[in-house]
Amino acid sequence: MIIKSNLNDYSVTIESSFEFVTELIGLENAYFVIDKNLYDLYEKRLFSNIAHEKLTIVEALEANKTIETVLQICEAMTIIPAKRNARLVSFGGGIIQDITGFAANILYRGIHWTYIPTTLLAACDSCIGGKTSLNYKHYKNLLGTFFPPEDIRICSDFFKSLTERDFQSGLGEVVKFNIMYGERGLSRIEHDLDLLLNRDENTLNTYLETSLAFKKPFIEEDEFDKNVRIHLNYAHTFGHAFETASNYAIPHGTAVAMGMIVANRVSLQRGILDEELVLRSEQALKRIIHVDFTGINLDIDTIIDAIRKDKKQTSSDLTAVLLYDDMKLGIFKDLKPKFGVKIFQY
Ligand SMILES: NC(=O)c1ccc[n+]([C@@H]2O[C@H](COP(=O)([O-])OP(=O)(O)OC[C@H]3O[C@@H](n4cnc5c(N)ncnc54)[C@H](O)[C@@H]3O)[C@@H](O)[C@H]2O)c1
Ligand SMILES: [Zn+2]
Fold first, then answer.
1. 197 and 145, same structural domain?
2. Taking every annotated instance into account, which residue ranges of this chain make up the domain 3-dehydroquinate synthase N-terminal (predicted)?
3. What is the number of structural domains in the chain?
């Protein structure tokens, strides 16, 4: 798949085995940044031939998604004599993507970047679109640029080692794209959810492709997020609020799954979405939301307060993307969400 970009068109390849990793390790002028958990799990099998001085291992913690980590990588990469022809090759989920995208963007005003998303969330969604974000002090994703990788390689073998928590978070985004497809997408998910939950490789590959194919026209038409791309923010207004209110105990894709339940209930309350579709979506979503809500404060005032602070809120009315009619997407104002944790649980 080729993604058109104002910066540089880029490619996404779905790999059927880990063979491509050997090819990447042999590349001239390459420097590697690898997620620590991933490195520990796959060191012997995949990474033992990477020269020590050409490797930085980063712990995937929000606390490490900072300009300091980016600067350390830039400094370490001065070992590569090629300068602007240097290539950063990074393996990991969204945290590693955000850090290495930023570094590849600013080092020598932009170097080559190959990215291997190793979480389902990064593979089915964030690896395309070109956003990079860093946290600063207590501000999540305050700093950012647009800089897509030029080469993305996805191998679903990596998802076998994800924890259930991280895997189901990725499924949140997969289910989101299908609910956004409309009734047909929802039926497909209802049919295939068991296979997805069992990490069936063929099913995962099919859904990876359809998820990326759904996102592609939005980011190609509006790469810099000024108009139609905003529709991809469906479920995220509430999702981001759940992430912050839980102090990131609820992972991104799970928070988005919860955000879909709330967004669709708001649509139902306004009489713009069919009740059957709302209930069927909820049935599917509840199967991928497994959160221990003890100690997490999701009361309505906390959530509304978190929504008001979201950087995408542009007016004092609460605004969000909602589904209407047969799952069309639109921007709606003056929301009055109602919920308690019970709506996310069986
Ligand atoms: N740039 C974007 O467009 C964009 C979009 C969405 C989210 N994000 C960011 O992405 C981050 C979340 O990303 P994420 O959900 O991919 O999680 P992550 O990068 O935090 O990784 C989750 C966990 O999975 C582990 N891991 C990674 N690959 C593994 C594998 N194959 N096997 C076992 N463990 C593995 C990591 O070590 C970590 O513990 C957030 O910081 C969010 O802000 C960015
Ligand atoms: Zn998301």
1. no
2. 57-168
3. 2
Domain final residue, candidates 141, 160, 179: 160
CA of 103 to the centre of ligand 2 (A): 22
CA dist., res. 119 & res. 165, Å (int): 11
| C-alpha 3: how far from chain center | 17
Three-state SS string across 270-315, please?
CCCCCHHHHHHHHHHHHCCCCCCCCCCCCCHHHHHHHHHHCCCCCC
Residue nearest to atom 38 of ligand 1 (CA): 60
Which among 5, 10, 18, 35 is the best mutation to test ligand 1's pocket, defined by most ligand atoms within 8 Å of the CB? 35
Give the number of whichever ligand sits closest to the CA of residue 237: 2
DSSP 8-class letter at 254? H
Same domain, 103 and 214: no
Helix (H) or strand (E) run with residue 242 in it: helix 236-245
Its sign, for the CA torsion 293, 185, 155, 173, is negative
Q: Where are the beta strands (DSSP E) in the chain?
A: 2-3, 10-14, 30-35, 55-58, 87-92, 112-117, 131-136, 139-146, 151-154, 320-324, 328-332
pLDDT in tens, 290-333: 999 988 988 888 888 888 887 777 666 788 899 998 788 998 98
- For residues 98 and 29, is the Cβ–Cβ distance under 8 A? no
The low-confidence residues of the chain, meaning pLDDT below 70, are: 314-316
Range of the domain at 65: 2-160
Within-domain flag for 181: no
CB-based contact 41:179 (threshold 8 Å): no
Structure tokens at 325: 């009619």
Residues 220 and 336 in one domain: yes
What residue's CA is closest to ligand 1, atom 33?
Answer: 162
Question: Is any atom of ligand 1 closer than 6 Å to the C-beta of 214?
Answer: no
Q: Letter for the amino acid at 18?
A: F
Residue-level pLDDT at 316: 66
Neighbours of 205 (CB within 10 A): 15
**Is 198 among the domain residues?**
yes
Together in a domain, 204 and 338? yes
